[in-house]
Specification:
Number of strands: 2
Structural class: mainly alpha
Shape: globular
Largest sheet: 2 strands, antiparallel
Distance between the termini: 34 Å
Order of helices and strands: HHHHHHHEEHHHHHHH
Length: 274
């Protein structure tokens, strides 16, 4: 139990757990995104990801993550990657015609996956209230769903996007209001491409990760101080040397991080698991 509570304090209790636990609270989802980013850091310089690669990457951190949500994030990433590639190869600063990308970079995929997961409860509320099988039920219905979500979700601990930024997202998805029956996928693409919302999510995730690291360090220091005051530890320190005890304790507590890094390096060394 003590080990589990230490993991909760450090924000590592959601790695390799079921998706239902990750999605149960915003704190869990935010901790998962922070821990997964650290674990998958070795993949940042990898080549482009196919849909199957993206699924395998996410499954490294959560064994039953819904594949449909990974596909949605990859589709949004593919749209952003196509635009980025077109701008990069366009002549005279004008973007070339967008083409389907041959995979997406890890950074672009993770940006979309992170934004979609961070705002998942908000997006689910909009999808359920304002979208049907044939697309959006109209901009008034979407406006009403956005207002209802903004009123209901924050008291329950779930974030909502900035209202002004979200209006820009809707305008982009609906092509300036000329296509009010746009598909939900267009809304997700526009949200994942909105740098203001992406940065808001990233800052909140980073702040939570920093707070968890500080709390874990304080908890570790408190435990070491408590141990040093006990007669048993004092006798062990005098007989075998306190430095060796501390170093062995550090090695045992750092094993989890090594396991995470090893798991994250697995696809980059032997190919992404499918």
């Amino acid at each position: 139990m003590a080990s589990y509570l230490d993991a909760v304090v450090a924000g590592a209790h959601v790695l390799w757990r079921h998706a239902a636990l990750v999605a149960a609270t915003h704190a869990n989802a935010r901790a998962f995104l922070a821990a997964a980013r650290r674990a998958l850091a070795p993949l940042a310089g990898a080549g482009r990801l196919s849909t199957g690669d993206a699924v395998s990457v996410v499954l490294l951190c959560c064994p039953d993550w819904p594949r449909a949500s990974v596909q949605d994030a990859w589709d949004a990433a593919a749209a952003l990657q196509s635009w980025a590639d077109a701008c990069k190869h366009g002549a005279g600063g004008a973007p070339a015609p967008a083409q389907a990308p041959r995979g997406v970079s890890f950074a672009v995929f993770w940006q979309c996956f992170e934004a979609a997961t961070y705002y998942a409860r908000y997006l689910a509320a909009l999808r359920g209230a304002a979208f049907g099988p044939h697309g959006c039920r109209g901009l008034p219905a979407l406006d009403a769903a956005m207002a209802a979500a903004a009123a209901e979700l924050p008291p329950r601990g779930w974030p909502v996007p900035d209202a002004a930024a979200m209006r820009r997202v809707v305008l982009q998805a609906s092509r300036g209001g000329t296509a009010p029956d746009f598909a939900f996928a267009e809304l997700l693409k526009a949200l994942c491409g909105c740098q203001a919302l992406v940065l808001d999510a990233r800052r909140d995730i980073a702040a939570a990760a920093a707070a968890a690291a500080a709390a874990a360090a304080a908890n570790s220091n408190s435990g070491l101080a408590g141990d040093s005051g006990s007669p048993a530890v004092a006798r062990r320190s005098s007989s075998s040397g306190g430095a060796s005890n501390c170093s062995s304790r550090s090695a045992s507590s750092g094993g989890g991080g090594a396991d995470v890094a090893a798991a994250a390096r697995q696809p980059s060394s032997g190919g992404t698991r499918r």
